[in-house]
Amino acid sequence: MVQFVEPQLHELADNCKRMRQWILTTTNKAGSGHPGGSLSAVEVMAVLYMKIMRVDPENPDWDRRDYFFLSKGHAAPVLYAALAERGFFPAEELMTLRQAGSRLHGHPSSECTPGVDISSGSLGQGLSIANGVALAARLKGTEQRAYVLLGDGEIQEGQVWEAAMTSAHYKLDNVCAIVDYNRLQLDGPVDEVKTLGSLRAKWEAFGWNAIEIDGHHLQEIYNSFEKAKEVKGRPTVILAHTVKGKGVSFMENQVGWHGVAPNDEQLEIALKELR
Ligand SMILES: Cc1ncc(C[n+]2csc(CCOP(=O)(O)OP(=O)(O)O)c2C)c(N)n1
Ligand SMILES: [Mg+2]
């Protein structure tokens, strides 16, 4: 297995820092958006887009690409930041987030934005779509993989578990789900709203290979994706333990930062912390 050497880690850490800056500045400019669940997913998204997925920014619709489905569509700012880092569109365009006429809607649209593989925002649907493209890849005989990022609150949706059974039933080892396990949802701690219990045991009981990691540790994230590729006959879920609002002291673990943009003063403090 490839181990990162220092310069690569530095590069990825730089990607992550810039992505956090974009999440904060673009939601501030828009005056709305979802920073908390975007910040928790930065490292996972950076590793996926910079190191793992086979995509072609020059040809976003390349028919042999790996797919990524942002099932927790409210985290659009982190998806856009990752796409810009990977070169799908110029980073300056990020500042048009949520503006009239922009390609960067508040929730992702596959109709508008290069590199966006599904329109999402209505929670619960991404894994079903991943199953569809994974089955199609099998029929086509290609090596394509389908990645899907789920929220921990999101997986209270029944459709997720129907889809989980489907992936296991069809032995879709080209499906890899990641749960952004930040323990908060829109209106409170996940455990208080509707507990997930033993999440690992649940996925395993549904026939999945489960890997638990620190979702901010670049090396662990990379290794988990590489391990998932080696697992045959079963889909893999990566339970990524994360911190909602990661990187900004006053946002970390605060449910109130789910869907509120920082004002100018808060932005300044946050950017200073990131520097
Ligand atoms: C079907 C559906 N129900 C409700 C919502 C409203 N909503 C948006 S985000 C959210 C909370 C999601 O929590 P989680 O999945 O934990 O997201 P994260 O913590 O990663 O931001 C809810 C209830 C929605 N978008 N779709
Ligand atoms: Mg959550």
Compact summary:
This protein has helices spanning 6-30, 36-39, 42-52, 76-86, 126-140, 158-169, 190-194, 199-205, 218-230, 264-274; strands at 67-70, 146-151, 175-181, 184-185, 188-189, 209-214, 236-241. It has 275 residues and is of the alpha/beta class. Residues 36-37, 40, 72, 74, 121-124, 151-154, 180, 182, 184-186, 244, 258 line the site of thiamine diphosphate (TPP).
Describe the structure.
It is a single chain. The protein is α/β, with parallel strands linked by helices and 275 residues long. It has one domain: Thiamin diphosphate (ThDP)-binding fold, Pyr/PP domains (Rossmann fold, 3-Layer(aba) Sandwich). 41% of the residues lie in helices and 12% in strands. It is built from 10 helices and 7 strands. It has helices at 6-30, 36-39, 42-52, 76-86, 126-140, 158-169, 190-194, 199-205, 218-230, 264-274; strands at residues 67-70, 146-151, 175-181, 184-185, 188-189, 209-214, 236-241. Strands 1-2-3-7-6 form a 5-stranded parallel β-sheet, with helices on both faces. A two-stranded antiparallel sheet has the order 4-5. Strand 2, helix 6 (158-169) and strand 3 (175-181) form a beta-alpha-beta unit. Helix 5 (126-140) packs parallel to helix 6. The longest helix has 25 residues, at 6-30. The model has no long low-confidence stretch (mean pLDDT 97). Bound molecules: thiamine diphosphate and magnesium ion (MG). Magnesium ion is lined by residues 37, 151-153, 182, 184-185. Magnesium ion (MG) binds at residues 37, 151-153, 182, 184-185.
